[in-house]
Amino acid sequence: MKHFEKNITIKTEGASENTARLLAYIPDTHEAQGIYRIRPAVLILPGGGYEYTSEREGEPIALKFLTEGVCAFVLHYSPAPARFPQALCEALTAIGYIREHAEEWKIDKDQIAVCGFSAGGHLCASVGTFWNKSFLESYIGTDREKVKPNKLILSYPVITSGEFTHQGSMDNLLGNNKEAELLELASLENQVTKDVPPSFIWHTYEDETVPVQNALLFASALVKEQVPVELHVYRRGGHGLSLGNHLVQGEMQYGETHISSDWIDKAIRFIFD
């Protein structure tokens, strides 16, 4: 396995220069019948309310994808006091970096998924809705296909800035700038177009931190635009479950799993489908 770290430095308008960290987990390639296997890749965006990036939703997720032959990358993007669109530009730049090196790392450049958790789910959905928008050109250039995500995986995502929002995420993302236009832009169920890639979404009915309506709003918007979507709502469980096992849940006994823990197996099938 190749494992290394890459810094991504971007300065957005009105913001100080920020540096994001991209951690790569790339399986070794083995010659089989004279050819090398080309693999899909996934860019992982941990949650943390745009206040920090959770370690529980980073490397453990990457290693699970890695065991199934998916090249995994974890982006520790810039949280507050960095504001929108800093983290978004970092995530799109990371996709471009992965695609640039696709041939070297035996990655299928047309199979780069993005997987986000909670506020990282909002960032993931932002990547999916804004990747081809002109207001980002001054930060990441005009070659939109270079930064295009091919699939989205949204784990208990923050989506809306409306009634069912996670207010802490919005406060950290937007700061004191709560103009109606920007709040509307951050409400991603209203930004869905046919250009959003196929999406996999999972949430829990009992989530009291980020209500399940966030997932339902985004899924409904995707259906309206005829974008393929797979949605799973687990009847039990709170927020921030990650893998839903003893590796990421300190109160669980060895070998214990939550009912939601099969989400990642479903997501891996979604990537390869």
UniProtKB/TrEMBL annotation:
This is Acetyl esterase. The keyword Protease does not apply. One of its GO terms (molecular function) is hydrolase activity. Residues 39-222 form the BD-FAE-like domain. Keywords: Hydrolase. It comes from the Bacteria. InterPro entries: AB_hydrolase_fold, BD-FAE-like_dom, GDXG_lipolytic_enzyme.
